[in-house]
Amino acid sequence: MYKDLISSWETTKKYLEKAKAIIEDSTDPKKLRVIESYNEFIEHDELELAANMLDCIELYTYDDNKAYLIPIIDAYLNMELYDDVKRLVDRLEKEKAKYIY
């Protein structure tokens, strides 16, 4: 059980680091502040809070690139946070609909 939990945490961290790498490409000071908060949560193994911080980056900045949401969805799935997965998938669907119609 303990070994599975450690493995799950490492998998979640890996997904979150992928999302962070996509966001970190920015020089936007607001995004960099979000990354600082994310790093603090990661230091304390607060993976859900770290994911939430990256997930809500749009509240602080606007970015057309939604690629960072895919690894966050993977992290939420790994943590079994299905409501968060549904919320992000719905957000992506709405975004996609803007370009179709």
**What is the total tally of β strands?**
0
End-to-end gap = 48 Å
Biggest sheet, open or closed, and with what strands and sense? none
What percentage of the residues does DSSP assign to strands (E)? under 5%
**Fraction of helical residues:** over 70%
Query: What is the number of helices?
Result: 5
Backbone shape: globular
In terms of per-residue confidence, which ranges show pLDDT below 50 for 5 or more consecutive residues? none
**Which structural class matches the secondary elements?**
mainly alpha
The averaged pLDDT comes out at: 87
**SSE order, one letter for each helix or strand:** HHHHH
Radius of gyration: 14 Å
What does this molecule look like?
By secondary structure, the protein is mainly α. It is 75% helix and 0% strand. It has five helices and no strands. The protein has helices at 2-24, 29-43, 47-55, 69-78, 82-100. The protein is globular and about 45 Å long. The N and C termini lie far apart (48 Å).
Any key phrases for this structure?
mainly alpha, 5 helices
How are the secondary structure elements laid out?
Layout: H1 2-24, H2 29-43, H3 47-55, H4 69-78, H5 82-100
Helix pairs in contact: 1-2, 1-3, 1-4, 2-3, 3-4, 4-5
Short description:
The protein is mainly alpha-helical and 101 residues long.
